[in-house]
Amino acid sequence: xxxxxxxxxxxxxxxxxxxxxxxxxxxxxxxxxxxxxxxxxxxxxxxxxxxxxxxxxxxxxxxxxxxxxxxxxxxxxxxxxxxxxxxxxxxxxxxxxxxxxxxxxxxxxxxxxxxxxxxxxxxxxxxxxxxxxxxxxxxxxxxxxxxxxxxxxxxxxxxxxxxxxxxxxxxxxxxxxxxxxxxxxxxxxxxxxxxxxxxxxxxxxxxxxxxxxxxxxxxxxxxxxxxxxxxxxxxxx
Length: 237
Prior knowledge:
This is DRAM1 protein. The chain crosses the membrane at residues 7-33, 53-73, 85-112, 124-143, 155-177, 197-220. It comes from Toxostoma redivivum. The longest helix has 33 residues, at 52-84. The chain has 7 helices and no strands. The chain has one domain (9-223). The chain starts with 9 loop residues before the first helix and ends in a 14-residue tail after the last helix. Helix 2 runs antiparallel to helix 3 and helix 4 (119-146) crosses helix 6 (195-217). Helix content is 68%, strand content 0%. The relative contact order is 0.14.
């Protein structure tokens, strides 16, 4: 069904579907295995212990790759649109792409280094992934407004900016409350020390993560008008 989409719209559609499945499947396995409490664990908590750790690591690495491909196509799309109506500088477009790719690298680190195995590296990867992701979608929202009304409707721009604002607002308490937690564990229960910090931070983390998913969902319509062609030239000596 994804392959029947016009243009390259199947790429962000696959990214959204795959990433949503990665979060949900690892969560369900972790809860059923009794490794985490069902009430709002950290996303990383649902991919720390086997067997869910293998599923989480594999699927999140694929999500990082799909996100990188989506961001690169988005970069090419903006460059192509700029040829007929210059609305953003190439340097700004490239900077936005680089920020997005940093976020993808952070996702790869999170997927590879489990929370309890190498917590410091895992936390750095999560900070890079979420921080770069928030900056990326904010920049893309600004670029979208600059491309109106020719390449985007104001309705889509408003949605993207709303998602960016909600993600930015959620990102700050996510980091603040996470920094107040004095222990590294995944089996949290209500009433214990630092549970309130964990609960609040986890809610914000899920909000930011699904903010990214819904943001990339808005790319599908844009990508329907864009196709990639590979040309091969043969030169004779």
